[in-house]
Specification:
Number of strands: 0
Helix content: over 70%
Order of helices and strands: HHHHH
Number of domains: 1
Structural class: mainly alpha
Number of helices: 5
Bound molecules: zinc ion
Distance between the termini: 79 Å
């Protein structure tokens, strides 16, 4: 208690405007050189101006952030769409490859059948010369890319 009194005696008390408060116990105010009413009013206006600018700065800082977030979401969505399109193109290409292989097998089957081959022999020959691409082949191709 006594220690607090010693510390506070003579220490300036500053108000919210940054001025020595009325009744400030510091030596300067005690000697009658405390801030005048005009200085207090100027200090209050300056504080209000600082607060107004801080509010404006906070609003200005918040706006580009939300714009940036929206732009990032846009870019992420575009990247997702591009990935989906690429995956669809790969699937179409793999499907086309399978269809082409199936067409080649069908053409060869017709040839062999016209040449008098039995279905069993013809299919065995086609499986040897025109194997169907497997899903595993597709995966290997995709991994290589
Ligand atoms: Zn003072």
């Amino acid at each position: 208690m006594g220690k607090q009194l010693i510390i506070s005696r003579g220490a300036p008390v500053i108000d919210e405007d940054g001025c020595h408060a009325r009744g400030c116990p510091c030596a300067r105010c005690d000697a009658g050189y405390g801030p005048t009413d005009f200085e207090r009013s100027r200090a209050r206006q300056a504080r209000q101006e600082r607060e107004r600018r801080a509010v404006e700065a906070a609003a200005a800082a918040a706006e580009p952030k939300s714009a940036k977030a929206a732009r990032r979401l846009e870019l992420e969505r575009a990247a997702e769409l591009e990935l989906e399109a690429t995956a669809a193109a790969i699937r179409r290409s793999q499907e086309a490859g399978r269809r082409a292989a199936a067409d080649a097998r069908a053409a060869r089957l017709l040839e062999l059948r016209r040449a008098g081959w039995s279905f069993e022999d013809a299919f065995a020959e086609i499986d040897r010369t025109h194997p169907l691409p497997t899903r595993e082949d597709d995966h290997e191709k995709t991994d290589d890319q």
